[in-house]
Amino acid sequence: GDELTPYATVTKFVADTSYETKDKSSEAVFAEIKEKMLSENLFSAVKISGLFKKMHVRMMPAQEPPYTRLIDSARRQPEQTETYVKGSVVGFFTPELFHGIGSAGFHVHFANDDRNFGGHVLDFEVEDVKVEIQNIETFEQHFPIQDKDFTKANIDYKDIADEIREAE
After folding, report:
1. What CATH number has the domain bearing residue 116?
2. What is the pLDDT of residues 86-116, one digit of tens each?
């Protein structure tokens, strides 16, 4: 398609580890995943599929030039909560060493099975889910060298690390 995104993290997902879990908060699920990851010093991709008792997300509004800073957009994102929804949480764990390239820790998104509800995950509770983890061996970064808006931009990096933490 013609869809564009300013930033994306992608992988050809092939799980190294998978297991079932029930009746847990997002904090408990992420703690469990960390225990099963190869290392917190490596990137990992995660997929959590099944029935969620609660799913709380926010959605980034569409933007047009001139674009606002990530933090300003994040502060005005609408939030939505659904209960007893089937779907998948997908995303990545980024090591603290690479904060800025990605958001350190877990950064995950949700889409329900009907594809009419989803967004950036704020928190959730699982009813009955399958958790899959992929340990990532190779990291590759591409830059928009043909995009003059990016290459000529004067970007204020002063507070970027803190802004990424707040926005994500």
Report:
1. 3.30.1330.80
2. 999 999 999 998 887 778 899 999 999 999 9
